[in-house]
Amino acid sequence: MPLMLIGRVFRDGPGWSAHCDAIGVYTQGASRKEAIANLIEVVQLKVDRRDFAARVTDVGGESVYIDSTDVAPLAAEVLKYQRAIHGLSLADVARKLGAAGRDTYAAYERGGREPTLSKYLQLLGAVAPEMGLMVGPTSASSRPKRRPKTRRR
Description:
434 Repressor (Amino-terminal Domain)
């Protein structure tokens, strides 16, 4: 299952801006297409892994989704960035999680361990309780063709 981050691409003066607040990346381009290409590049630079490749899906309006086939480094970048902007140390997060040491949490932040969904919710709650996860189709083509019938009482 992919991890998708929500981003924004919008007209900004004569050009375009592209942002992903979850990992703190911001860029610009002369066109919407260039801003999205720059967003891919800046996400890959931020994650800084040799074989990491980010993708951006333009879903229209200001919204874009950022994902990768390699979930652990992207999840790690969210945790690392959110911990930093909330002014927490590794020891602070370990305490919040009730862990004896910071090494287990640090392994998630390094991307060395890929957390389960419930573990990721727990980790994210410790570093950025105001953030949440959303569930939905990854593309328009993956939506069901028809709705299930509802039962009336």
